[in-house]
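Q&A log
Question type: sequence-to-structure
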Amino acid sequence: MQIDDSLFLKLENLAKLEFQPEERAKIKKDLENILQMVKKLESVDTEGVVPLVYLNEATHTTRPDQVAGQLQKKDALVNVPEHNDDFITIPKVIDL
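Response status: OK
Response body:
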């Protein structure tokens, strides 16, 4: 596949990018090199190759959820200036 000016302008528009003419020439060459590399990869025989799912054989171990280190309500509210049994009163900071 050859990257011509119309295709490049379409890609440029889709990506919402703008390039200078000298940048276009360099990027077109890079895109053509990428397409050549993909063509080489397509020619590789992958028959019988198991697809790679994980990069390593390590498995993730999980631990059971355990409730620990909780504060009692009275201890949690010790530094709160105003509160009742269930709510913290916060002073208004924005006057609307």
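Response note: DSSP finds three helices and no strands in the chain.
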